[in-house]
Amino acid sequence: MNKPNLVFVCTENSARSLMAEAIARQKYSDRFNVFSVGTAPTEPDERAINALQQHGFTTEGLSSKSFAALGNTEIDYAIILCDKARQECAQGLTAKHILSWDFPDPKTGKTAKAFDTTIHELADRLKMFVLLFDKESK
């Protein structure tokens, strides 16, 4: 059986979705092909990259990408990580399953702790998502 495609979406694809991609790729690549994209991609936020590295996640290959980078990839699970991206994707996102997890933008935080918090919260939410996925896959 082919692994399902899991795509994380936020506006800039510079922090939340990149962090989710790094976490999911490292922990769950045995279950999913993992990607991230932005509705208006910019550049990876250095604080997000640093936080991932400090927590032991590889950042090799992480870059901000648009939906065009997915080409014709069929999306099985799209997880939208911010309200703005959810609104922007309302009409055009095609995926078998769309989930909306509205995470606060760590870039608006005054300290690097916001990125640590986001990593922990994303990891916890992903763990629950995978538990449900595994249960439904049996």
What does this structure look like?
The chain has helices at 16-28, 46-54, 83-89, 113-137, and strands at 5-10, 33-38, 77-80, 97-100. The longest helix has 25 residues, at 113-137. The protein has four helices and four strands. The two termini are 13 Å apart. It has a single domain, classed as Rossmann fold (3-Layer(aba) Sandwich). The protein is globular, with a radius of gyration of 14 Å. Helices cover 39% and strands 14% of the residues. Helix 1 crosses helix 4 (113-137). Strand 3, helix 3 (83-89) and strand 4 (97-100) form a beta-alpha-beta unit. By secondary structure, the chain is an alpha/beta fold. It has a four-stranded parallel beta sheet. The mean pLDDT is 91.
Question: What attributes characterize this protein structure?
Answer:
Rossmann fold, 4-stranded parallel β-sheet, globular, alpha/beta, 4 helices, 138 residues, single chain
Q: Whole-number radius of gyration?
A: 14 Å
Q: What is the H/E string?
A: EHEHEHEH
Major sheet: order of its strands?
2-1-3-4
User: What is the CATH third-level topology name?
Assistant: Rossmann fold
What is the CATH homology-level superfamily? Answer: Response regulator
Helix proportion range: 25-40%
Q: How would a textbook summarize the main sheet? A: 4 strands, parallel
Annotation field: number of helices: 4
What is the overall pLDDT average?
91
Oligomer: single chain
**Uncertain runs:** none
Query: What is the C-level CATH assignment?
Result: Alpha Beta
Report the sheet-strand fraction: 5-15%
Q: What is the SS-derived class? A: alpha/beta
> Shape, please?
globular
